[in-house]
TrEMBL record:
<feature type="transmembrane region" description="Helical">
    <location>
        <begin position="98"/>
        <end position="116"/>
    </location>
</feature>
<keyword id="KW-0472">Membrane</keyword>
<feature type="transmembrane region" description="Helical">
    <location>
        <begin position="173"/>
        <end position="190"/>
    </location>
</feature>
<feature type="transmembrane region" description="Helical">
    <location>
        <begin position="46"/>
        <end position="62"/>
    </location>
</feature>
<keyword id="KW-0812">Transmembrane</keyword>
<protein>
    <recommendedName>
        <fullName>Major Facilitator Superfamily protein</fullName>
    </recommendedName>
</protein>
<feature type="transmembrane region" description="Helical">
    <location>
        <begin position="7"/>
        <end position="26"/>
    </location>
</feature>
<keyword id="KW-1133">Transmembrane helix</keyword>
<feature type="transmembrane region" description="Helical">
    <location>
        <begin position="74"/>
        <end position="92"/>
    </location>
</feature>
<dbReference type="InterPro" id="IPR036259">
    <property type="entry name" value="MFS_trans_sf"/>
</dbReference>
<feature type="transmembrane region" description="Helical">
    <location>
        <begin position="146"/>
        <end position="167"/>
    </location>
</feature>
Length: 191
C-alpha cells in the first residue's frame, strides 16, 4: 500500500508559501524611502504594478503545467524567481534588507516546495457535467466571461492600488503603525 502524504504538512507548507509571497504587500513601506534615497519619482510605482501584473499572467501560463510537471517543480521555480527578484532589487537599490529578505524567502519557498504533492486521483469515475459546460475557446467568445473578467480586473486593480499605497494612507490618517497594519492585511489576504 502506498504511503499517503501528510495533508496537514502540505497545508502548513502552502500557508508558509502564501505568507512569504505576501512580502509584496510591504511595497508601500519601501516606496517612500526608496524615492528619497535615490531621487526617484512616483513612476517607481510601476515596479509594483508590473510585479503584481505578472501573477495572473503566470497563472495562465503555468497553471496548466502543474498537472503535467507537478506542483513541486512549479513552486520551486516560483520560489527561485521570487527570491532572485528580491535579491536583485537589493543590488539595484543598494539595500541589504532586500538581499536578506530575498534570501530568506527563497529558502522558505524552496523548502516548502518539497512538501507539495499532487492531489490524489478521485476514486469515482463519475464525471459531473451540465449543459452549460464549455471549452476555453468557446468561453472566451461569451459576453458573460468578459463581463466577469472586467469585474475581476477592476476589483483587483482597486485593491492592489490601495495596498500599494497603504503605508501612506495609514500614516496620513494616523491609523497606527504602518508595518503592523500592512502585515495584518497581508496575513488576512493569504486565505
Amino acid at each position: 500500500m502506498e504511503k499517503q502524504p501528510n495533508r496537514w504538512l502540505i497545508l502548513a507548507a502552502a500557508i508558509f508559501i502564501n505568507i512569504s509571497l505576501g512580502a509584496g504587500y510591504m511595497w508601500s513601506l519601501f516606496q517612500g524611502p526608496l524615492q528619497q534615497a535615490h531621487g526617484w519619482t512616483d513612476n517607481i510605482s510601476w515596479a509594483y504594478s508590473i510585479s503584481f501584473a505578472m501573477v495572473p499572467i503566470s497563472m495562465i501560463i503555468f497553471g496548466p503545467k502543474v498537472d503535467q510537471i507537478g506542483g513541486k517543480k512549479i513552486v520551486f521555480l516560483s520560489g527561485v524567481l521570487f527570491g532572485i527578484g528580491m535579491i536583485a532589487t537589493g543590488f539595484i537599490t543598494q539595500q541589504s534588507f532586500f538581499k536578506l529578505m530575498g534570501s530568506v524567502l527563497l529558502l522558505i519557498i524552496i523548502i516548502c516546495s518539497f512538501f507539495m504533492e499532487k492531489a490524489p486521483e478521485q476514486s469515482s469515475t463519475t464525471i459531473i457535467s451540465s449543459s452549460t459546460d464549455q471549452t476555453p475557446k468557446v468561453m472566451l467568445k461569451t459576453q458573460k466571461f468578459w463581463l466577469l473578467w472586467l469585474i475581476y480586473t477592476l476589483a483587483t486593480t482597486g485593491g492592489m492600488m490601495l495596498i500599494g499605497h497603504a503605508a501612506g494612507i495609514v500614516t496620513e490618517y494616523s491609523l497606527g503603525n504602518a508595518a503592523v497594519i500592512i502585515m495584518l492585511c497581508a496575513a488576512f489576504n493569504t486565505g
